[in-house]
Amino acid sequence: MLLDLVVGGKIREPAECEIKVRGSPLADLYRFLSRVSVECSRDAASAATLVFESRRDEQGRWMVQDSEQLLPWEPITLEAVFGAHREEILRGYVRDVRATYPESAGAATVTVSCQDESLVLDREHVRKVWGGEAPTSDQVILTEIAAKYGLTVDPTSGAGMSGLVLSQDGTDIRFLRGRAEANGYELLVRQGTLYFGPMRLDATPQAPILVYAGQDTNCRTFNVHADGHQPEAVAVDLASTRGATTTRRVMVPDLPLIGTRPAAGGSGLPDFTWLLARVGSCDEEELLARAQKRANDFAMRVRAEGELDGSLYGHVLQVGLPVTVDGVGVVLGGTYYVDRVSHEFSTEGYRQSIVLLRNAFGETPGGPGSSVLQGIL
């Protein structure tokens, strides 16, 4: 029997994973569930894997696969339950079901693969000219595609480009990802909402990650790597309107610093500039947007990896949002941007493996995460 966790004088129950298909919990199948893992990142669809140990009953029916509760394209939701409150990890559809029958019947398993709601945007091949009658904008395109699937557009999304005449020849999700790349944006699908916009480094940070914080510690391991050999700017050659000559534009990072000083060095050394190759028939606006995005990506040269105890953290860490880290020093501590999170529920508990990025050093005095008590429920 699992005992409640006592942290900082407060009682916390071990986190559990609740799985719902068409809104109904898989109550009868939980006893066969051996592992749940969910991969979330800023540059790919979120995906979950559920592994069940299947058994046969007295009539020879297999308890998992013959229940017909887990079939391709069934709507599915995974939530982390922390005692009295819960937070969603993934909402989407069952994509693939695989049953294995090895030599020993007792080792038979069923593996269910799921993907977030972007999966339904990848079914129909669309051929359409956007802005054929009158130039359109990314905002109009995003709103129309989102409404087509019953999704909403995050109000903090970027405006994108305007005056567009575009040909779509592919699925809606592939088209939107292409538009996000053209704008230097992120495209995130979460809880029925599409976010289409720049990195949100200035958003409100999530509950802090606490390293070496005594009874309040919620981070098992934390490692930081600062890569100094990253370009400090990105150049792009633009075609001139006066013949075959080109004009070179240099883009420097324009993201807000999430720290007190830039994570760059090399004072007195030659400029470290990376040249962007031309991409297809990109126009000037798109080339500059791509170069700006690349410059911002290079600026996120501080990378941290670690593992959270999900029950002690008490939250589902979300990608594409900032989080504060405390307990690793005044230089490496402070605000980071969540790049990837791997969730895993097993007999060993709930763990979140994380990858964080940062473009600066130093904690912001008095800012979020400056106290180990901040954000603790």
What's the shape? globular
Overall CATH class of the domain at 5-116? Mainly Beta
Task: Spell out the helices and strands N to C.
Answer: EEEEEEEEEEHEEHEEEEEEEEHEHEEEE
- What's the CATH topology label of the domain at 5-116? Phage tail proteins - horseshoe like beta roll fold
User: What CATH architecture of the domain at 5-116 would you give?
Assistant: Roll
> What percentage of the residues does DSSP assign to strands (E)?
35-45%
Secondary structure class reads mainly beta
Descriptive report:
The radius of gyration is 24 Å and the shape is globular. Among the domains are: about 5-115, Baseplate protein-like domain - beta roll fold (Phage tail proteins - horseshoe like beta roll fold), CATH 2.30.300.10; about 235-300, no CATH class. The longest helix is centred in the C-terminal third of the chain and has 16 residues, at about 285-300. It is mostly beta strands. Strand 5 and strand 6 (about 45-55) form a beta hairpin. It has helices spanning about 140-150, 170-185, 285-300, 310-315, and strands spanning about 5, 10, 15-20, 25, 35-40, 45-55, 75-80, 85-100, 110-115, 125-130, 150-155, 165-170, 185-190, 195, 205-210, 220-225, 235-240, 245-250, 260, 275, 300-310, 320-325, 335-345, 350-360, 360. It is built from four helices and 25 strands. Strands 3, 4, 5, 6, 7, 8, 9, 15, 16, 21, 22, 23 and 24 form a 13-stranded mixed β-sheet that branches. The chain is about 10% helix and about 40% strand. About 35% of the residues are buried. It starts with a strand and ends in a 16-residue tail after the last strand.
